[in-house]
């Protein structure tokens, strides 16, 4: 456990909601993340975790895919597909010239920071960075009942038989534009959901309201990390 969000430079847009639900905070780099809850839900059944404090970064432009490959990122120019990296991070291809990089569940942002710092306009690579850590909140929805939750809020069929591991849907969830990327953790379905950080409180509240119908609720980062070790 560490000092709360107010003692850190970065804070999740869901801070107040998570504090009301009794979050125990832990430090990840320059931010505090909800590490655990006294009455956390079962991540194998249905649970929602706030990963907004973890590092993420985007790149956009005609030369993006080639620029990522030059930097050791495993990626193909196939839109709406994710690619797992050796360190556990994810590369989401949103368009032939746009990607979003999500850190691993340890919150190791060294590689993403190096990518951002190492980018130079004068290199003429026809790509530029996007600060997705500022623009997008990041939630993980885990468990066998996750597709049931999305069925109430999203028109896209996200059942595991129809929406395979590493697939991406750029769609509307709870009447908000969102990116949904499935990236299972072991045998447990996991959907990474990214949406406008300015509306994160509303968005998460909608997900929680739907989750309660199926016996789900919030979990901390530690419970998500434990899925990888189980």
Give me a quick take on this structure:
The chain is of the alpha+beta class and 230 residues long. It has helices at 15-20, 64-70, 110-118, 132-135, 146-153, 200-213, 221-229; strands spanning 23-28, 31-37, 47-50, 56-60, 81-84, 90-95, 98-102, 128-130, 136-142, 168-173, 176-182, 190-196, 217-219. Helix content is 25%, strand content 30%.
Description:
The strands form three sheets. Strands 10-11-12-9-3-13 form a six-stranded mixed β-sheet. Strands 5-6-7-4-8 form a five-stranded antiparallel β-sheet, with no helix packed on it. A two-stranded antiparallel sheet has the order 1-2. Strand 1 and strand 2 (31-37) form a beta hairpin. It folds into two domains: 5-53 and 134-229, 2-Layer Sandwich (Gyrase A, domain 2), CATH 3.30.1360; 56-132, Alpha-Beta Plaits. It has seven helices and 13 strands. It has helices spanning 15-20, 64-70, 110-118, 132-135, 146-153, 200-213, 221-229, and strands at residues 23-28, 31-37, 47-50, 56-60, 81-84, 90-95, 98-102, 128-130, 136-142, 168-173, 176-182, 190-196, 217-219. Helix content is 25%, strand content 30%. The mean pLDDT is 94. The two termini are 22 Å apart. The chain is α+β, with helices and mostly antiparallel strands and 230 residues long. Helix 5 packs across helix 6. The longest helix has 14 residues, at 200-213.
């Amino acid at each position: 456990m560490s000092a709360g969000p107010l003692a850190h430079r970065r804070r999740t847009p869901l801070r107040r909601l998570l504090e009301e639900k009794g979050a125990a905070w832990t430090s990840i780099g320059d931010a505090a993340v909800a590490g655990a809850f006294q009455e956390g839900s079962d991540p194998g059944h249905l649970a929602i975790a706030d990963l907004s404090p973890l590092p993420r970064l985007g790149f956009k432009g005609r030369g993006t895919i080639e620029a990522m490959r030059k930097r050791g990122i495993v990626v193909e120019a196939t839109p709406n597909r994710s690619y797992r990296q050796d360190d556990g991070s994810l590369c989401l291809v949103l368009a032939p010239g746009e990607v979003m990089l999500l850190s691993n569940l340890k919150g190791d942002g060294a590689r993403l920071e190096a990518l951002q710092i190492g980018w130079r306009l004068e290199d003429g690579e026809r790509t530029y960075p996007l600060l997705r850590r500022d623009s997008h909140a990041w939630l993980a929805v885990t468990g066998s009942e996750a597709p049931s939750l999305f069925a109430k809020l999203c028109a896209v069929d996200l059942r595991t038989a129809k929406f395979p591991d590493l697939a991406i849907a750029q769609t509307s969830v709870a009447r908000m534009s969102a990116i949904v990327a499935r990236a299972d953790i072991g045998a447990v379905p996991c959907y990474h959901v990214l949406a406008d950080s300015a509306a994160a409180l509303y968005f998460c509240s909608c997900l929680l309201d739907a989750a309660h119908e199926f016996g789900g609720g919030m979990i901390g980062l530690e419970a998500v990390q434990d899925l990888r070790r189980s």
